[in-house]
Amino acid sequence: MGRHFREELEQLNSDILRMDALVEESVAKAIAALRDRDPKAAQEVIDNDARVDELELVIDERCLDLIARYQPMASDLRFITTGMRLNGELERIADIAVDIAERVIFMAGEPLLKPLVDIPRLTAVAQKMVKMAIDAFIARDSEIAKQVLFLDPEADTLRDAIHKELVEEYMVKDPATTPRAVQLLLIARFLERVCDHATYIAEDVIYMVKAEVVKHHPERL
Amino acid sequence: MDKKIRMKARNVDFFYGTTQILHGIDLDIFENNVTAIIGPSGCGKSTFIRLLNRMHELVPSARLKGEITLDGKSITSSDVDPVEIRRKVGMVFQKPNPFPKTIFENVAYGLEVNGVKDRQFIEDRVVGSLKKAALWNEVEKRLHDSAISLSGGQQQRLCIARCLAIEPEVILFDEPCASLDPISTHKVEELILELKKDYTIVIVTHNMQQAARVSDHTGFFYMGKLVEFGRTEDMFTRPREKRTEDYITGRFG
């Protein structure tokens, strides 16, 4: 197909990268708000989510419009359908940033249960996975995407360690800590979900680049 | 690819005079499947399907090497009667080409030239063919009107009915929708999907979306060679060859 179609694909590509920039910014802000115990910064994350939602609709419509007008095939079709999926995954990550921000606001009036050790480690893994997944998309590189999938067990291990510590060291020993421990449990769960969405993006990128479906088939990696 | 193979091309080279048009084509056509042949103009796709019912022999300088079989028997050797092959392997062309006769006579024509005299038999076969070609409801009250009075889409379905009347086993469609509007195209595509239950179908088309919609297998021809052949769903989402990818995404051709 012609120049106009290529230009529209380029436009879609830049919209997805713009979406990614907004989402990575939300995640970074939510994590900083958690670290600094800053409810004001957390509120900004919540307020900014409307921009992400709006862009999600724009990208979805652009993808549908491209399919309807050009009936793309092969790599073009895979790029557009992957774009739609990425768009959805990124929007879900932004929603999780909002979830974390809400917990930060909820916890603002209370002293921290304990110094955060594993949660910053999990945030680092989550941010790295999202960044790498998007790097794989930008570079159309299935090898980088594969590395994202190999990082996911690390996130699961950290989440399990956080759960174990909070339940065994705090909630069981001193049930009065439960309300505060639950907030941290939720945050660990949210961060682990960010990692899951990064793996979905990586799986979609592998499909886009190599036309291989690895979703639900880890043995194909 | 578990279906029975009806037609097979093996190492087929084809020449007009000294010009080689096709190079070493190996291709299987599966029973009750639609096989689409795609490729840019001049790639040899129409030439190829003409070999499948020996239409190429109408050109004096034509020369074929290699073998084409129907149900395991050669159709290309000189002791096989081309008329018999064309009865088994029918063809529908790009432009509807009804004879300047009535609708009824058009469909009955093939039977009559084959020496069928039984009027009742002919009538039953004409009605049956028009029904199979999804045209009956539109023409049942005007069977003795001129075929030329039909719309382009109806004329094309009439040509399909004419082809069906002699009960072929394989039907070749050479760009059957090239001169039709979208509604008529839709009707012909629906018809092809219906017909594949009873017939084996090969369709040459420039319309890739059409190939994607109606076919089970697709072959991509380029410069007289079969570049890629495979299941349609794979060809249009994950072609193996870069040239196929470039063609179906419009990067050349």
Describe this structure in words.
The complex is a heterodimer of chains A (221) and B (253). In chain A, helix 1 (3-36) packs parallel to helix 3, helix 3 packs antiparallel against helix 6 and helix 5 (142-171) packs antiparallel against helix 6. Chain A contains six helices and no strands. The longest helix of chain A has 34 residues, at 3-36. Chain A has helices at residues 3-36, 39-70, 74-107, 118-139, 142-171, 178-210. With 221 residues, chain A is mostly helical. Chain B is an alpha/beta fold and 253 residues long. Helices cover 35% and strands 26% of the residues of chain B. In chain B, the strands form two sheets. In chain B, strands 6-7-8-3-9-10 form a six-stranded mixed beta sheet, sandwiched between helices. In chain B, strand 4 (62-70) and strand 5 (73-74) form a beta hairpin. In chain B, helix 3 packs across helix 4 (119-132), helix 3 packs parallel to helix 6 (152-165) and helix 6 (152-165) runs parallel beside helix 7 (182-195). Chain B is globular. Chain B starts with a strand and ends in a 5-residue tail after the last helix. The chains are: A mainly alpha (221), B alpha/beta (253). The A-B interface holds A 1-2, 5, 71-78, 211 and B 208-209, 212, 236-239, 244-245, 248-251.
In whole angstroms, how far apart are the ends of chain A?
Answer: 32 Å
- How would a textbook summarize the main sheet of chain A? none
- The residue-averaged pLDDT of chain A reads 95
How many helix segments of chain B?
10
**Low-pLDDT stretches of chain B:** none
**Strand segment count of chain A:** 0
Strand order within the widest beta sheet of chain B: 6-7-8-3-9-10
Quaternary state of the chains: heterodimer
The average pLDDT value of chain B, as a whole number, equals: 94
* Rg from Cα of chain B: 18 Å
Helical coverage of chain A, percent range: over 70%
Number of strands of chain B: 10
User: Helix coverage percent of residues of chain B?
Assistant: 25-40%
Largest interface: A-B, 12 and 13 residues
The general outline of chain A is elongated
Following the backbone from N to C, one meets helices and strands of chain B in this order, namely: EEEHEEHEHHHHEHEHEEHH
Approximate strand percentage of chain B: 25-35%
Supply Rg of chain A.
Answer: 19 Å
Low-confidence stretches of chain A: none
Specify the structural class of chain B.
alpha/beta
Number of helices of chain A: 6
